[in-house]
Amino acid sequence: MNLDNIHLTTFIFYMGIAIVSALGIYFAEKNTYVKIIDNTQLKKYYPVGKILYLILFISLVFISSFRYVGPGIGGADTLWYISLFQNNTDVGFNIEKIITLKQQEPLFYLLIKLVRVFTDNYLIFFIIIYSIITIGYLEFFARNLRKGMVIYPVILFVVNYIYSFSAIRVSLALPISFLAVGMYDKGSKKNAVILTLIAVLFHYSALVILMFFVFYEVYKSKIFRRKWIIVGTLIIASLSISLLINNISFIFEATKYRYYLDNQNNLRGQLPTIFFAFIVILNHKSLVTVMKEKAIFLYTVYFSFLLVPAVMFLGAYRLHSYFDFPKIIVMSYLIAVLKTKFASSDRAGRLLIDFIAFTMIVVWTSYLVIRTSNSALLMPYINRLFM
């Protein structure tokens, strides 16, 4: 990580987005109530909660859509996306090339054509794009957070948010994938698969969600409820995947992902994913009990552990992105479990756990913001309206 390229004002601004957004979501979730309809409990928002989410939506769309974009600023790939839009680029819909990952994802280009029907102004295109992304992100939190939950892990969302300044296609695939995972756990498996395929046609990396569904079906069985079995099978599976990848990496040589094979990642960058997985495993039973219908998110943590070899040896760093938001929910429940386990009746102890967890999350978010900003050319941030 290059610290020489840090733009302090932009760094503070990005971290400010993280903190203010988490506070906004916290107060929005405090302004909720439960309404029972046909024996089903539904979360509803008081007007204040709705207004807070609306303010967050408008603010986040404004910040992302009206950023200045130029050579070396505003996102590494953004000028390319603008060029695609202005040229009304068409890649067609060749099934063979899609299956073999040899053409660009068609749905993004279809979206370009739909917008170009009524405008050639890329700023309007950005507003539409970031409205979709922001709605998806906020909807995920509104659907999965509850009053009384630990909210400050939401700070981490800012990493995906600023990354969307550069990686637009994968950022469109993410919220669709989040919906698919939620549907799958509720029994709508067919619809979940259909949604995942739609996400895949925005970015092929969303295929990882289909792999996760298979993993989830295996690991949710009673056989894998013991900690030592979970740890043992994950380690064996991870080593097996590492050996397999070394023998099949040539498959990607003929695809549009050839570039990533030369950009492998080291183990050091994967240590937080590994560490978090083991902490979650140690508290598996308690987390399953408290998370209930959200327990599917627990398995995204274990699946992320299995993705480490692919991220390291194939350079497939974007795969983790599909599980970042579910892991935020797991983190929230984990902190609550740790407070109950180690300081159930000790207010000072609970505050200490909160302080340690909050500090670790802020430090980790800061590191990721700097790393992402360096790699995706996101510093300095300049707003077009204030130039």
Short description:
With 387 residues, this protein is mainly α.
Report on the structure:
- With 387 residues, the chain is mainly alpha-helical.
- The chain has one domain (3-386).
- It is 65% helix and 3% strand.
- It has helices at 8-30, 47-65, 78-86, 95-99, 106-116, 122-144, 157-163, 168-185, 189-200, 207-219, 227-248, 271-282, 284-291, 296-314, 324-343, 347-376, and strands at 32-37, 40-45.
- A hairpin with a 2-residue loop joins β1 (32-37) and β2 (40-45).
- α14 (296-314) packs across α15 (324-343).
Instruction: Please provide the ordered H/E string of secondary-structure elements.
Output: HEEHHHHHHHHHHHHHHH
Tell me the major beta sheet. 2 strands, antiparallel
Strand content: under 5%
- If strands are numbered along the chain, what order do they take across the biggest sheet? 1-2
Per DSSP E runs of 2 or more residues, the count of β-strands stands at 2
What is the tally of helical segments?
A: 16
**Mean pLDDT rating:** 87
Shape: globular
Any low-confidence stretches, pLDDT <50, length ≥5? none
Q: Tell me the span between the first and last alpha carbons.
A: 29 Å
Structural class: mainly alpha
Rg: 21 Å
Overall tally of domains: 1
Give helix % range: 55-70%
